[in-house]
Write a structure and sequence with these properties.
Elements: H1 11-44, H2 49-56, E1 64-75, E2 78-91, E3 97-109, E4 115-121, E5 123-127, E6 132-143, E7 148-157, E8 162-173, E9 176-186, E10 192-194
Antiparallel strand pairs: 1-2, 2-3, 3-4, 3-5, 4-6, 5-6, 6-7, 7-8, 8-9, 9-10
């Protein structure tokens, strides 16, 4: 014969032990979650020394930071164009350049120093070696006739006084809207040719 001994827990004791068991399971889950987050943070916060040096290298910092700046380009004493920027930083190096960010406007002038065209954009980079301005992001060029060119990138070559892009363009004139891909134009945007 076998002797069986049975017992029942008081309802309060059963509730108490169940609560402790639930608490331990939650704590275990929280501990796993904590270690998962911690290990992710430790592996995600890894920077190469070369990356840190590149960011903190004084050669990568602007040598001449400017706010609300105006840069005027003259040729033989006549104003050819004027760059007005909310933020204009000059960088040195093998190929010095100026970086306009936070919005800028380039104004083009004719031989009598009368405004010929206006080019606002969000960002621009003027390469002092090649004398080229690359404008990007919400680029608009408006000539004296009110014709408007819209594109995402436009390159102005100072030496050739030409403007070009290989990006999609929209030209709005008094007679309608023209769409195309790529454009070549003079800097006053009075003579232009859509490439495609």
């Amino acid at each position: 014969t076998t002797l069986q001994i049975g017992f029942t827990l008081h309802p309060f004791a059963r509730w108490f032990f169940q609560r402790k068991y639930d608490y331990l399971m939650r704590a275990k889950g929280n501990a796993v979650f904590f270690w998962l987050v911690l290990s992710t943070m430790l592996t995600a916060c890894h920077n190469e020394i070369s990356e840190i040096k590149a960011i903190t290298d004084p050669r990568n910092m602007p040598v001449q930071p400017n706010r609300d700046a105006t840069f005027t380009y003259t040729e033989k004493g006549r104003i050819k164009n004027k760059l007005i920027a909310a933020k204009l930083d000059r960088y040195q190096g093998e190929s010095p350049y100026m970086l306009a960010s936070s919005g800028f406007t380039m104004i083009f002038f004719d031989s009598l120093e009368t405004e010929d065209a206006r080019l606002p954009a969000v960002n621009g980079k003027y390469d002092e070696t090649t004398n080229e301005l690359i404008a990007w992001e919400n680029v608009v060029l408006v000539n004296v006739h009110g014709e408007k060119l819209e594109t995402e990138e436009l390159i102005f070559a100072q030496d050739s006084t030409g403007i070009h892009t290989d990006k999609f363009v929209t030209i709005t004139t008094q007679s309608g809207v023209i769409y195309g891909e790529g454009l070549e134009s003079n800097d006053s945007f009075t003579k232009y040719r859509i490439l495609k």
